[in-house]
Amino acid sequence: MTNFTRKPLADCVPELVATARGDKPATLVITGGKLVNVCSGEILEGMSVGIQGGRIAYVGKDVAHMIGEGTQVIEANGKYIAPGLLDGHCHIESTQLTVTEFSRAVLPLGTTGGFFDAHEIANVFGLKGIQLMLDEMRGTPLAAYMQVASCVPAAGAEFETTGASIGPEEVAEAFTWGPDVIALGEVMNFPGVVYGDEKMLGEIQATLRAGRFVDGHFTWPSSDWRLPVYAAAGVTGDHECVTADDVIERVRLGMYAKMRRGSAWHDVAKTITAHTEHGIDTRRMMLVTDDRSSESLRDEGHMNFVLRDAIAQGVKPITAIQMATINTAERFGLARDIGSITPGSFADIILLDGNLADINVVLTIAAGVVVAENGVMTAELAKFTYPEEVLASVHLPQRPTSEDFIITAPIQTGELTTRVIKVRENHVETIERMVSIPVVEGQLDVNAIEGLCKIAVLERHKGTGNKSVAVVEGIGFKEPAAIAMTVAHDSHNVLVIGNDDDLMAKAANAVADAQGGVCMITSGGETLFPLAIAGLMSTEPFEIAAAKSAAISKALYDAGCTLNYAFMTLSLLALAVIPTLRITDKGLVRISPEGIQLVPLFV
């Protein structure tokens, strides 16, 4: 098994200098390529790179003086030599994969590193969950940097129940684990920051005192006077950009604007116009994924796909590459180590064939080792074992029944104006709708209105029995159907959506029996995708997980739910810090210019 240890530059200086001057043979050299220089914004012909161990010793026209008997020589033959791609904001748990399998999935696609916010597993297991993922990261070839979850729970204990909580003391502790714990993860409770919440400001202060960075999540309009207030707290990066103005205002305040292209969030097309139409300098603009499923990694790609999307919007290829390499490294103060092909940097390098705009990755080098070639992993990665506790995280006090999904009305008959969550395809935001729904024998008759389904959340961490049931629009089911999942951002309770109470109960029991996962049920049968690791990640290899994720997508589609990467969109319907209307185990939550509040189902 290859050791992918990344030594500090200070420990490598004598060897690097000796190699660069020709007194010590390079371990690997790349010759005769077109260097994508993200520092100068140039393409340099006929360039070569010499590597010693995990770092770059030399970049120039000729590396012949560094080639010895044991040197591995890679002839680029005119291909582009580019820095490995970096994802500046990513939740690995959203891929449904372990860190190891995520690495296997993305390294052949050219991603060699990233900044990972493990707030999904943190909502289930707290610091222990983050520590487990960090330990696993350190055994992979990735230049992986962990962010400490800032909002566990996301909106606060009064709005939802999580399996753990994290505050200033826990944040300070996590930063003692090592320099690869780089930042405070997205601060989603932005109203708390703006209005001086002691816990949120304490977490930010602990981060700044540790010399780390603070990532943001601000969903009020960019024109809101409170964005500079948020920035004053030390927040210097934000991925909740959905318009050009969102990008422009953040950059003007000195923040890094992160433009995402997840599986179901297609924000690059609009946000990138801050540069292509408004001429904003791209130095503080980054491309990120945020959330991509294993299925979309398989079918579309990772950062290579995001870059192609930006280039298709009119961004120059080298500028797009900068937004996924050096800009990202500079945002986290790591440009000395990653993000460029320069002497002293880690040897994270990709070879690109054909047109640069195609981002056609044919070889990936991570920490000086060839790990993938022609889309296939060539390096074997060690298996990481999660403890039994993490494989048994669904704790319901009793088995759900169809009665759990009845919505009792305050009247026996008539109609009630009801708040409805309206789903938006390819967007994280929902719309709050008011719909008049009939009441029959004291129960809300949701099926009487075409296009509506029930949506429920069952608390699964502490066995409290907390439950809420509401109404959702835009799912599209054309037959009796239900889906249940333990992936329900960010508290990850059991989320159930359906138009048939019996099927909703069956789906909920199926994911509980599997100790986590996704289950889609219709009269035609059941499709189950087990996610036993914290109810979030599969124990299976990438290829199998992607196939099971695709099977859920097909089952949804066959039942009439044609939303793009529907599962990803549905899993966010419990995320209480995204506008406008959401559901948690404690009820309906609305986020508005006034802040976050619980609101009644009936108006």
Model description:
It is a single chain. The protein is α/β, with parallel strands linked by helices and 603 residues long. The protein is 25% helix and 28% strand. The protein has 17 helices and 29 strands. The strands form four sheets. Strands 1, 2, 3, 4, 5, 14, 15, 16 and 17 form a nine-stranded mixed beta sheet that branches. Strands 20-19-18-22-21-24-23-25-26 form a nine-stranded mixed beta sheet, with helices on both faces. Strands 6-7-8-9-10-11-12-13 form an eight-stranded parallel beta sheet. Helix 4 runs parallel beside helix 6 (198-209). 59% of the residues are buried. The model has no long low-confidence stretch (mean pLDDT 96). InterPro entries: Adenine_deam (IPR006679), Adenine_deam_C (IPR026912), Amidohydro-rel (IPR006680), Metal-dep_hydrolase_composite (IPR011059), Metal_Hydrolase (IPR032466). Pfam families: Adenine_deam_C, Amidohydro_1. This is Adenine deaminase. One of its GO terms (molecular function) is adenine deaminase activity. It catalyses: adenine + H2O + H(+) = hypoxanthine + NH4(+).
